[in-house]
Amino acid sequence: MNIKAVVACVLWALLLQGCESTYRSFNKDIPDKYIEVVQDDPNVDVEATLKASGKPYVCKELYFGHNSSQNRRACFIKLPEDDQLERLKIKMEGTPQAMLLDTGKNVLVVGEVFLGFLFFGYVPLD
User: How many Å apart are CA 112 and CA 12, to the nearest integer?
Assistant: First the structure.
């Protein structure tokens, strides 16, 4: 087999393996933010008001325990979208750790290949 092809395959594998954590860090899904709508007037139905407004909302039963005084129905509205820079900031927070993990993987793979050539004259295939 051509040595250039082997070297190219090893470098391609290192690139794919070595960028996995960084790729996952950049592509993580940022959850939407919601805020609870609190009912001030007991005569007003919050869910009906939200339905009439046409804004996206979600209502859920909050259950804290059997016959708990905290059990209630709560409604939440979606907060407006953050600006693009804020979303990018959240994605970039995990980048240093991901790059460190990728560097460690690359060092491990290169070291194993080097030691395989040095002591055994071949690439270990474990």
Answer: 16
> What's the gap between Cα 45 and its chain centre?
36
How far apart CA 47 and CA 80 sit, in angstroms, is 19
Q: Element (H or E) spanning 77, and its range?
A: strand 72-78
Q: Please count the other Cβ atoms lying within 10 Å of the Cβ belonging to residue 25.
A: 19
Cβ 48 vs Cβ 126: under 8 Å: no
Alpha helices in 19-83 (DSSP H): 20-26, 46-53
Note the pLDDT tens digit of each residue in 26-78.
777 777 778 888 777 777 788 888 888 888 888 887 777 787 777 777 888 88
R_g of the chain computed on alpha carbons:
27
Of 106, 81, 103, 97, nearest to 24 (Cα)? 97
What pTM, to 2 d.p., does this model score?
0.42
User: Token digits for 84?
Assistant: 């693009």
